[in-house]
């Protein structure tokens, strides 16, 4: 039995929804096509976390790291399904900060928007640090030490330049960045498979799938090592929600967004699990260094220095792609915040090509923090570990806000949920399961001194955001927004109650 189609139509208007705009207001253009959004979805989730961080996850967990990536990917798939269903329920939603404000209240849009901005700024800082202090120096080792901060400045200028022209230019850049990563990982899998099947002799013995269980078992570090891997592996998945940030600039989102979200399980199995299975089969997991990319190590150990150099270029491209995505998403989030009076109106301005360039420049200025860290010698794994811990925790907050918004959406708009063509599977139970998993991750982050330090420092950010919100909520426009939200929520609850009790028709 289903409710009649007429009963599934919401009475909310565009003006009721945060993110709606007047016809003459600054706006973004829907210039991203299907191939752009598909590759952005892939590229956002394959960055330094996989290419750089997987060396550390392998060293702390051994082969059981495969299960770690599967579990995290499984849980985040449901976050993406929740996000996709809500975004497609209202055309006016530009990103998830819009729908958190619409469903949870103006405070939620403020906290989610600014925290997501902070997430990507921190992540992009980590990317710039690794690009300048590791990848570029590996390519040009004769550079003096003072050149590293200069390289970071050049990288930041290049990334800002890639985002300034048009959103389509960003889409094309990210498309080819992602293509390089995809081809490289597929090449690694094919070449590694050949090495394993031919029993290629490495310095650690012949390549074999038996390395997955013969060198201390599948859980060589025990339960402690298995849990420790969650701390690091979580960062590999930041950016998986990037398609939600690009929703306002996507052509035909009703078709392209579901395609991108549905491809997540295949991406995880192929690019994460498949690549790591090959890596740990070519060489025992004990041979990998926590501070180096296992992709480069595998080719160097196999006696293929030219291939290792090529992989180094690929890893550099991957980090550039991740930072490029971060700059894009932060500029769009600040633009959205500014249009809702949650950020200075200066950042609501767009260029003639509909790019929020002022918001873009703000991110560029914040990325200069990477230069400061490098000047004080906090490069490579030290700074990378610090910033990725904070970033992972803040992303977990954003993912949780998406789930809380979904619960509010189901409670207040059951008619929209019933009419949705992209309903979240197991929607009655999985939001609670995933949030329980996030609680487990918080506990896991207490297991090591560096991640515990990040966990203890992260609340400082939320304190700063809370202070900011207390200051701006005194504004008359914010008071009106809160009153509008309360009225809208009450109206939607009444509509939901009527919908649940009205006669049901068979279709």
Automatic annotation (TrEMBL):
Pfam entry (one): AA_permease
Region feature Disordered, mapped onto this chain: 1-25
Membrane topology: Multi-pass membrane protein
Source species, domain of life: Bacteria
Compartment(s): Cell membrane
UniProtKB keywords: Amino-acid transport, Cell membrane, Membrane, Transmembrane, Transmembrane helix, Transport
Positions with biased composition (Low complexity): 1-15
Xref: InterPro entries: AA-permease/SLC12A_dom
Domain called Amino acid permease/ SLC12A: residue spans: 36-474
Transmembrane segments: 60-80, 114-136, 142-164, 176-198, 218-243, 264-283, 295-316, 359-378, 384-409, 429-446, 452-472
Protein name: Amino acid permease
Source organism: Brachybacterium kimchii
């Amino acid at each position: 039995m289903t409710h009649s189609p007429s009963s599934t139509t919401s009475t909310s208007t565009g003006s009721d929804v945060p993110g709606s705009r007047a016809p003459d207001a600054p706006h973004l253009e829907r210039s991203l096509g299907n191939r752009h959004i598909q590759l952005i979805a892939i590229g956002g989730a394959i960055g330094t976390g996989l290419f750089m961080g997987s060396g550390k996850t392998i060293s702390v967990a051994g082969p059981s790291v495969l299960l770690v990536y599967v579990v995290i990917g499984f849980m985040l798939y449901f976050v993406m399904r929740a996000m996709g269903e809500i975004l497609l329920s209202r055309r006016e939603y530009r990103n998830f900060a819009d729908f958190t404000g619409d469903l949870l209240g103006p405070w939620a849009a403020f906290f989610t928007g600014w925290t997501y901005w902070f997430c990507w700024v921190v992540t992009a800082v980590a990317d710039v640090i690794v690009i300048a202090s590791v990848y570029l120096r590996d390519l040009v080792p004769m550079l003096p030490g003072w050149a590293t901060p200069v390289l970071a400045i050049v990288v930041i200028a290049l990334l800002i330049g890639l985002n300034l022209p048009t959103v389509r230019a960003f889409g094309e850049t990210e498309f080819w960045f992602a293509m390089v990563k995809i081809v490289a990982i597929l090449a690694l899998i094919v070449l590694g498979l050949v090495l394993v099947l031919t029993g290629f002799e490495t310095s650690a013995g012949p390549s074999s799938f038996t390395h997955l269980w013969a060198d201390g078992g599948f859980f060589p570090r025990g339960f402690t090592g298995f849990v420790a891997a969650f701390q690091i592996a979580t960062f590999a998945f930041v950016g998986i929600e990037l398609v939600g940030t690009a929703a306002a600039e996507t052509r035909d989102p009703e078709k392209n967004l579901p395609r991108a979200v549905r491809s997540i399980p295949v991406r995880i199995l192929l690019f994460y699990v498949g690549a790591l299975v090959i890596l740990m089969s070519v060489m025992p997991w004990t041979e990998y260094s926590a501070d180096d990319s296992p992709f480069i190590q595998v080719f160097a150990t196999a006696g293929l220095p030219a291939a290792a150099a090529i992989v180094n270029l690929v890893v550099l491209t991957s980090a550039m792609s991740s930072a490029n995505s971060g700059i894009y998403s932060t500029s769009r989030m600040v633009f959205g915040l500014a249009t809702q009076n949650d950020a200075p109106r200066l950042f609501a301005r767009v260029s003639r090509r509909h790019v929020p360039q002022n918001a873009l420049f703000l991110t560029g200025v914040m990325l200069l923090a990477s230069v400061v860290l490098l000047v004080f010698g906090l490069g490579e794994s030290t700074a990378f570990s610090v910033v990725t811990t904070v970033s992972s925790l803040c992303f977990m907050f954003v993912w949780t806000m998406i789930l809380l918004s979904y619960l509010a959406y189901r409670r207040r708009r059951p008619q929209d949920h019933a009419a949705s063509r992209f309903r979240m599977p197991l929607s009655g139970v999985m939001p609670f399961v995933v949030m329980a998993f996030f609680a487990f991750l918080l506990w896991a982050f207490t297991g090591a001194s560096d991640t515990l330090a990040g966990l203890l420092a992260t609340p400082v950010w939320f304190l700063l955001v809370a202070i900011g919100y207390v200051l701006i909520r005194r504004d008359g426009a914010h008071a009106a927004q809160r009153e509008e939200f309360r009225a809208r929520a009450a109206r939607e609850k009444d509509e939901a109650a009527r919908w649940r009790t009205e006669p049901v028709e068979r279709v």
